[in-house]
Design a protein that fits this description.
This protein has 6 helices and 4 strands. The protein has helices at about 10-15, 40-50, 100-115, 120-135, 140-150, 155-175, and strands spanning about 55-60, 65-70, 75-80, 85-95. Strands 1-2-3-4 form a 4-stranded antiparallel β-sheet, covered by helices on one side. The longest helix has 19 residues, at about 155-175. It is elongated and about 65 Å long. The N and C termini lie far apart (about 85 Å).
Length: about 180
């Protein structure tokens, strides 16, 4: 029986010698971009984006991943399941949306799923509500445009044009305009 003793602690730490102990390797696994336990780093993401082909994915964990599109754009996405169907939630492009922002969005999506709601449908409803509450409705923009044109147009042309919008356009759009 042969016993190997390493005097250099750096060698013995990974070689399993007496000084470093048996199996002294760390049980944490580093991924290809420098993060620990599947967590990405900004430096690693930049490296991945610069050298990856379209269709490549880089996962952060819990369903969050970075996808390289056909136009070499890096897009944050979250993969989730609802009612037995796999779906995808798009966050936005990297670096406009940082890793920290993507993780915050991931937490919001997970909270939405915990309530039993589809996060994509929930986002669409929130955007529609925000649009209807804002001053950027078609009628508001049209009224502002008419007020600018009132000085340029004759009184008859202005009156007929405004009346036509009120009679034809606004009514056909309904109350959410």
């Amino acid at each position: 029986m042969t016993i190997v003793v390493f005097l250099d602690s750096a060698v013995s730490k990974y070689a399993g010698g007496i000084i470093g102990g048996i199996g002294a390797k760390s049980n944490r696994v580093k991924n290809m971009v420098g993060g620990i336990s599947g967590k990405l780093t900004d430096k690693g993401i930049k490296s991945f984006v610069n050298r990856s082909a379209p269709g490549s994915k880089l996962a952060d964990g819990r369903g969050l991943y970075l996808l390289i599109t056909q136009t070499q754009t890096a897009i944050w996405r979250i993969k989730y399941r609802i009612e037995g169907k796999e779906k995808s939630y798009s966050i936005g492009a990297y670096p406009q949306n940082s890793l920290a922002q993507a993780r915050l969005e991931l937490n919001e999506v997970k909270a939405c799923l915990t309530k039993g709601q589809d996060p994509v449908i929930s986002r669409r409803l929130n955007r529609a509500n925000a649009a209807s509450q804002s001053d950027s409705t078609f009628k508001a923009v049209a009224e502002e445009w008419f007020s600018m044109k009132e000085k340029e147009w004759s009184a008859t042309h202005f009156t007929k044009s405004k009346r036509a919008f009120e009679r034809d356009v606004y009514k056909s759009l309904g109350t959410a305009y």
